[in-house]
Design brief:
The protein has 165 residues and is of the alpha+beta class. It is 22% helix and 19% strand. The chain is built from 4 helices and 6 strands. Bound molecules: 2'-deoxyuridine and zinc ion (ZN). It catalyses: cytidine + H2O + H(+) = uridine + NH4(+); 2'-deoxycytidine + H2O + H(+) = 2'-deoxyuridine + NH4(+).
Length: 165
């Protein structure tokens, strides 16, 4: 699976738009996520914090729960942007929640807050990002996939397996 250039740009723009609605008075760390659904629509989500702290919901889960609860359960890509210029990866809990609905080869774009970063030989090299999964791509975007972020994962298909007695 791969994203067209137009879809990639639309998804990145939507992630920035989503970030504007972050409710993050405690961490002051805004996050925006945008999911491209199989029907071509884009669903946005922001992190929504809570005075209890533990009730906080990340941007990625906001987006996927918004989508799934409106009947969209098949996706072609995800983009995530935060307030920092290094690329930030979804937390463990979000990876598992995304895994429920996203194919292992679904592209995930991790976008720096200063996107597009100026040209740099590494940014279009397709090199593996240092110290982790994914490839560096145009504008400083780290491109990875669901399966790279959550290898050897547990998913809905495993509940269909025959059970031992
Ligand atoms: O991938 C991430 C990482 C963090 N956060 C949120 C949760 C919390 O509101 C704030 C700080 O952890 O950032 C996200 O939304 N997505
Ligand atoms: Zn998360």
């Amino acid at each position: 699976m791969s994203l067209s250039e137009a879809n990639r740009e639309a998804l990145i723009k939507a992630a920035f738009e989503a970030r504007a609605f972050s409710y993050s008075p405690y961490s002051k760390f805004r996050v925006g996520a945008a999911l491209l659904a199989a029907d071509g629509s884009i669903i946005k989500g922001a992190n929504i914090e809570n005075a209890s702290y533990g009730g906080t919901i990340c941007a990625e889960r906001t987006a996927i729960v918004k989508a799934a609860s409106e009947g969209k359960r098949s996706f072609a890509g995800l983009a995530v942007v935060t307030d920092v210029s290094s690329t930030i990866s979804p937390c463990g809990m979000c990876r598992q929640v995304l895994r429920e609905f996203c194919a292992l080869d679904m592209p995930i774009l991790l976008v720096p807050s200063d996107y597009p970063k100026p040209d740099n030989p590494d940014f279009d090299s397709g090199k593996t990002a240092s110290g982790g999964v994914g490839k560096m791509t145009k504008g400083g975007v780290k491109a990875t996939t669901m399966g790279e972020l959550l290898p050897d994962s547990f998913g809905p298909e495993h509940l269909e397996l025959p059970r031992g007695s």
